[in-house]
């Protein structure tokens, strides 16, 4: 479903389907492929949206949270299957970062942009605008 603002509603969740969410994002998506240790190891493709465009539909009680380093990023994952379908990113603490790979239906067009998260402090500012929804 596409809204008047040109946003489409995507449904998604974790592997065992205990955690379910909806996210409003453009039909043509731009996502970030980060090479930091946690993103590289988990295969996370970042779709960062304003928190108002994310709706947790089920599974709040199935979520656990992991933090490290500064503790600003709140990595949430399903306690049952271990999948991290979304989290609150350090770069955009006012937004939600959804794993593109956890959407039920693959978008028709996706632009994957590399991001040097291995050198986080040098490049973090490149992501700051993503949760504004411009």
Can you walk through the features of this model?
By secondary structure, the chain is mainly beta. The chain has a single domain (7-132), classed as Metal Binding Protein, Guanine Nucleotide Exchange Factor, Chain A. It contains 2 helices and 10 strands. The chain has helices spanning 37-42, 120-123; strands at 7-13, 20-26, 28-34, 45-50, 54-58, 63-66, 74-78, 86-88, 95-99, 109-115. The strands form 2 sheets. A 7-stranded mixed beta sheet has the order 6-7-8-9-4-3-10, with no helix packed on it. Strands 1-2-5 form a 3-stranded antiparallel beta sheet, with no helix packed on it. Strand 8 and strand 9 (95-99) form a beta hairpin. The protein starts with 6 loop residues before the first strand and ends in an 11-residue tail after the last helix. The mean pLDDT is 87.
What are its keywords?
134 residues, Metal Binding Protein, Guanine Nucleotide Exchange Factor, Chain A, three-stranded antiparallel β-sheet, single chain, seven-stranded mixed β-sheet, mainly beta
Give the topology, please.
Elements lengths: L6 E7 L6 E7 L1 E7 L2 H6 L2 E6 L3 E5 L4 E4 L7 E5 L7 E3 L6 E5 L9 E7 L4 H4 L11
Parallel strand pairs: 3-10
Antiparallel strand pairs: 1-2, 2-5, 3-4, 4-9, 6-7, 7-8, 8-9
């Amino acid at each position: 479903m596409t809204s008047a603002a040109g946003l489409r509603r995507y449904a998604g969740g974790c592997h065992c389907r205990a955690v379910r969410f909806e996210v409003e994002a453009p039909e043509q998506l731009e996502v970030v492929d980060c090479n930091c240790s946690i993103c590289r190891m988990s295969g996370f493709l970042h779709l960062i949206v304003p928190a108002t465009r994310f709706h947790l539909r089920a599974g709040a009680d199935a979520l656990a949270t992991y933090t490290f380093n500064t503790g600003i990023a709140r990595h949430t994952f399903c306690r049952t299957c271990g999948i991290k379908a979304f989290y609150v990113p350090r770069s955009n603490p006012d937004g939600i970062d959804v794993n593109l790979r956890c959407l039920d239906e693959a978008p028709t067009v996706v632009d994957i942009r590399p991001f040097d998260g291995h050198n986080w402090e040098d490049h973090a500012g490149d992501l700051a605008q993503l949760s504004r929804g411009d």
